[in-house]
Amino acid sequence: TNPKFRAWRTAGHSLVRDIKVVSPTELTWRMEEAFAPYQSFLAETFMVPKHILEKEADPNAAAFNQAPVGTGAFKWAQRVAGDHIELVANADYAGEGPYLERLVFKYIPDMTVLYTQFKSGDIDLVDQAFITADHYAEASQLSDRVVKLEPGASVESIYLNLEKPQFKD
């Protein structure tokens, strides 16, 4: 809600009123008006630590942005720009697990390279990047891989054909 902080999505936050802490794990609030996608937006909204960022003259340039903190099953290890992000198991995690020692998220902008690394075992999961249709049949037959289609819960984007008369204005 800080207008100086360049959050990637702020839609709906200005409609929130009367936030109340019900318990250590529950909040309630009232919305100024109905905003149907807000629950979905909250699933992809990240809270940032006020006690760290309020001290910063420019929250967008804070060291926190390159080494965030959190309370989840994994904690920040490192980011190698243009290559990968690494997370390590959080021994202080309050829930069950984590069941892995580390996670590495690789930046692979080329879909053919992504598939090649998946096929060779260099990467284990492609998730939202997906395997392209021209590789799907082969990928489905790999003996040491599980390839399955999973429906998503959101629409990533909708593009209108601006050449059609009804969308020109």
Could you give the count of β-strands?
5
Helical stretch tally: 5
- The level 1 CATH classification of the largest domain is Alpha Beta
Number of domains: 2
Task: Name the strands of the widest sheet in spatial order.
Answer: 3-4-5
The whole-number mean of residue pLDDT values reads 88
- Rg is 21 Å
Question: What is the general shape?
Answer: globular
Low-confidence stretches: none
What is the percentage of strand-forming residues?
Answer: 15-25%
> Major sheet, described briefly?
3 strands, antiparallel
CATH architecture of the largest domain: 3-Layer(aba) Sandwich
- CATH homology superfamily of the largest domain: Periplasmic binding protein-like II
Structural class: alpha+beta
